[in-house]
UniProtKB/TrEMBL annotation:
Coiled-coil region: none
Protein's recorded name: Fe2OG dioxygenase domain-containing protein
InterPro entries in UniProt: AlkB-like (IPR027450), AlkB-like_sf (IPR037151), ALKBH2 (IPR032852), Oxoglu/Fe-dep_dioxygenase_dom (IPR005123)
GO biological process: DNA alkylation repair
Domain spans labelled Fe2OG dioxygenase: 98-237
Positions annotated to bind substrate: 60-62
MF term (GO), any: cytosine C-5 DNA demethylase activity
Binding positions for 2-oxoglutarate per the UniProt entry: 107, 116, 219, 228, 232, 234
Length: 248
């Protein structure tokens, strides 16, 4: 269940000041950020996200589907953010990641993002974000079901599941119910785990999540005290194209 997180602070914040300004200038030229309707809204009740979003590159279907433009039509702010994030990732992980999707999220005072994991099908191992403006607190907890959501359930092995289940029961102070040894689909138990730890992210910081982070943990952005923008880079493989290639 290993995952790794890197929290990086820039030596100088001037770059972040300029980029924060650039985002706001670009957002005036064309309307970038929209508050999207939640996909899981109950019928007839339009509910919108607790933040504004704008997507570039591959489509990203998380709790809602934000406006997406191709990478080559990126506004300058997004291209600059992507370059900076790619450079920090290269220096930190000593490997280059060809990010093909950048989700920019804008939060007004009091907005946040609920607990979720970045569960897009085909999501690569490295998710890296650059934070601008108001500070934010990111909380982590164990997912209530490993591999749930858009992941393929079979991506979680029985051994991994048992490991997660032990850990979750200990955290929730629940005694471990007996698990049917024969069951081939053990993903039945739901436990809501407490927050494990929080990270305070500042203007200009880059935060990198790698490994099993998305499969076993979820994160939230608590309600922010002021205006904030976060640009998150991901690599999303076209799993359907890949499946077709390997079949032929
Ligand atoms: O606002 C952030 O720093 C992270 C946002 C996030 O978790 C996401 O876009 O999935
Ligand atoms: Fe996320």
């Amino acid at each position: 269940m290993k995952c790794k997180l890197y929290h990086l602070h820039p030596e100088k914040r001037a770059f972040a000041d300029d980029l924060f300004h650039q985002y706001q200038t670009d957002a005036q030229v064309s309307e970038l950020f929209v508050r999207c309707r939640l996909q899981s809204s109950p019928h007839g009740h339009a509910q919108v996200n607790r933040h504004f979003a704008f997507n570039v590159g591959e489509t990203y279907n998380y709790s809602s589907i934000p406006t997406t433009v191709p990478l080559e039509d990126s506004p300058p702010c997004v291209s600059v953010a992507k370059n900076e994030i790619s450079n920090v990732v290269l220096r930190t992980l000593r490997c280059s990641v060809e990010f093909n999707q950048v989700l920019s999220v804008a939060y007004m005072e009091g907005m946040g993002m609920k607990f979720h994991s970045d569960g897009e099908v085909g999501l690569g191992d490295v998710v890296a974000s650059l934070s601008l403006g108001s500070p934010a607190r990111m909380s982590f907890r164990l997912r209530n079901k490993p591999g749930k959501g858009t992941f393929d359930h079979s991506a979680v092995t029985r051994e991994e599941y048992e490991h997660w289940f032990d850990h979750a029961c200990r955290l929730c102070r629940k005694s471990k119910p007996r698990v049917d040894e024969e069951s081939s689909t053990p993903l039945q138990t739901e436990l809501v785990c407490p927050t494990l730890f929080t990270v305070d992210i500042q203007h200009g910081d880059v935060f990198i999540m790698i490994g099993n982070t998305q499969r076993f943990y979820e994160h939230e952005i608590e309600r922010v005290p002021g205006f904030r923008i976060a640009a998150t880079c991901r690599r999303i493989e076209d799993v359907h194209a890949h499946a077709n290639r390997t079949q032929s």
